[in-house]
Design a protein that fits this description.
It is a single chain. The chain has 211 residues and is an alpha+beta fold. It folds into three domains: 3-50; 56-87; 89-202, no CATH class. Helix content is 49%, strand content 17%. The protein has eight helices and five strands; from the N terminus they run βββααααααααββ. The protein has helices at 43-50, 57-87, 94-97, 101-111, 120-132, 142-150, 156-171, 175-185, and strands at residues 3-10, 14-22, 28-38, 187-190, 193-196. The chain has a three-stranded antiparallel beta sheet, with no helix packed on it. The protein has a two-stranded antiparallel sheet with strand order 4-5. Strand 2 and strand 3 form a beta hairpin. The longest helix has 31 residues, at 57-87. The chain is elongated. It starts with a strand and ends in a 15-residue tail after the last strand.
């Protein structure tokens, strides 16, 4: 029996194939079969594939599942906290929930300042905000993270986050006091309202250790 050769034409959206036989001189003798198969890629998949950034469907599902789990845990924490606040008459009203950005951070700053007093519902609002803005925490266990740091493998991102927290420790400020001060210093007034040139979302700090 002659030798068989399978030829493949690999494209972005399809794969073509042809199976042939060769004679004793290894020249094409006959075609045993041919065809093509369509690869079901979305527009984004095809673009990433051509750029060498292919990502498996399982990986995409894992990322989406991780996001959903994080949101579910946040909602469970929030509901559990609301239950405790309600039991202790600390659940904030609508006015406190809708506090403007600067006023909310100033409330957190006052709650952490010795000699300042806040009401029970104001303290409840602070706790709800801390629950929402918990800060960054390394995905690994503390022991593993410490071991990784000792080995000098700490990423630049993690080092930057820890560096920001170290600056606050040296200044003797809580995160709430720090952000309140930055927002006050970068407050701008325009005809359409007040805005801030300081973007809190770009300032990532470790998991909150105080108000």
């Amino acid at each position: 029996m002659g030798k068989k050769v399978l030829g493949l034409d690999l494209g972005v959206g399809s794969i073509g194939w042809c199976l042939i036989t060769l004679d004793k001189d290894e020249k094409p003798q006959s075609i045993l079969g041919m065809g093509s198969r369509i690869v079901p890629l979305s527009a984004d998949d095809a673009t990433e594939f051509t750029q060498g950034k292919a990502i498996t469907k399982n990986k995409m599902r894992t990322v989406a599942r991780t996001i959903r789990k994080g949101m579910d845990r946040y909602q469970l924490r929030r509901e559990a906290l609301k239950k405790v606040l309600r039991e202790h008459a600390m659940l904030p009203d609508e006015a406190l929930i809708k506090l403007p950005l600067l006023e909310l951070w100033e409330l957190r700053a006052r709650a952490a300042t010795p000699g300042e007093q806040v009401s029970l519902t104001e303290l409840g609002r602070v706790l709800l905000h801390i629950n929402q803005k918990r800060g960054y925490k390394h995905a690994k266990a503390d022991e593993a993270a410490e071991a990784e740091t000792k080995k000098g493998k700490e990423t630049g991102y993690v080092a930057q986050v820890k560096g920001r927290y170290q600056i606050l420790k040296e200044k003797g400020l809580t995160i709430g006091q720090h952000f309140a001060g930055e927002l006050r210093a970068n407050q701008q007034t325009a005809p359409r309202g007040t805005y801030y040139t300081y973007r809190i979302k770009e300032q990532v700090y470790p998991r909150v250790r105080g108000v």
